[in-house]
Design goal:
This protein is α/β, with parallel strands linked by helices. It has 2 domains: 180 residues, Rossmann fold, CATH 3.40.50.1820; 61 residues, no CATH class. The protein has a 7-stranded mixed beta sheet with strand order 1-3-2-4-5-8-9, sandwiched between helices. It has a two-stranded antiparallel ribbon with strand order 6-7. Helix 9 links the parallel strand 8 and strand 9. Helix 2 packs across helix 3 and helix 5 packs across helix 6. The longest helix is centred in the N-terminal third of the chain and has 12 residues. The radius of gyration is 18 Å and the shape is globular. The two termini are 32 Å apart.
């Protein structure tokens, strides 16, 4: 499958390792820039906008499986002697699906605060709030922020979403993410397609100590697909753990990808 994903690639001529970084729902590759800045001096880094996000193509229907295949096609253009994927939230689901579909393709998998399970609806209010913003009448991000406040009281969440609001050359406001497409595909986004596949390489699941996206009840599902999985909890962090505790997050990722490997 031909990949139409937007990406940035930071080449490191001294490394034979490629770290692929994938953001979560309603985000862009820039959301993980703190991770990219940390690792670019050490390894090759490929930062990707998922389909329907950032500057990647908008689709009629988003699916985790199709996104994984597009990512696979893109990574094939840059693959090094060793390749690892770090995915946060929805990006973690896409990374897990790629690892299960092409298990010989990856050496490392790091999953940030998500599990291979179907989740209840968590974003209905956010989707409704985003749809309520009249992009034809606002004059600034501040106007959009005020429109979101009544439904989304957390300033940090609003600022995260507003990073994807931009003006075109004609001064018209748009969301970079495909709001209607993602809303229509939300069942697939929050779901998980079960399979008998396994990825036997070591997998690191990083959980925010204040987040409930990974719970003890999900351990059996995690081990079903990733029998060599281990978990690390970053205390004091929520779902956006890489932004809330960047030093701790980068340290645990670095320890995993630079661990001793068997010959």
């Amino acid at each position: 499958m031909q990949s139409t994903l937007h990406y940035s690639f930071s080449e490191n001529a001294d490394s034979d390792y490629l770290l692929v970084i994938i953001h979560g729902l309603f985000g862009t590759a820039d959301n993980l820039s703190v991770v990219k800045r940390h690792f670019a001096p050490k390894v090759n880094v490929l930062s990707v906008d998922l389909p329907d996000h950032g500057q990647s193509a908008h689709l009629e229907h988003f699916s985790i499986e199709a996104a994984a295949e597009q990512l696979y096609a893109l990574i094939n253009q840059f693959k090094k002697a060793r390749t690892g994927i770090l995915g946060h939230s929805l990006g973690g689901k896409v990374a897990m699906r790629l690892a299960l579909t092409h298990p010989q393709f990856l050496d490392d998998l790091i999953v940030a605060d998500i599990a291979p399970v179907s989740y209840p609806s968590r974003h209905d209010a956010i989707i409704s709030a985003l749809k309520s913003v009249d992009l034809n009448s606002i004059n600034s991000r501040s106007d959009a922020d005020k429109s979101l406040q009544s439904v989304i009281p957390e300033a940090g969440v609003r600022q995260f979403l507003l990073k994807s609001l931009y003006q075109d050359a004609g001064k018209q406001w748009h969301w970079r993410f495909n709001l209607n497409g993602l809303a229509n595909s939300y069942e697939a986004i929050k779901g998980w397609q079960s399979s008998d596949a396994q990825f036997s390489e070591p997998v690191l699941f990083i959980k925010g100590g204040n987040s409930d996206y990974i719970t003890a009840s999900m351990q059996s599902e995690i081990l079903q697909y990733f029998p060599a999985a281990r978990a690390h909890v970053i205390e004091g962090a929520g779902h956006w753990l890489h932004a809330e505790k960047p030093d701790a997050f980068n340290r645990v990722v670095e320890k995993h990808i630079f661990r001793p490997h068997q010959a």
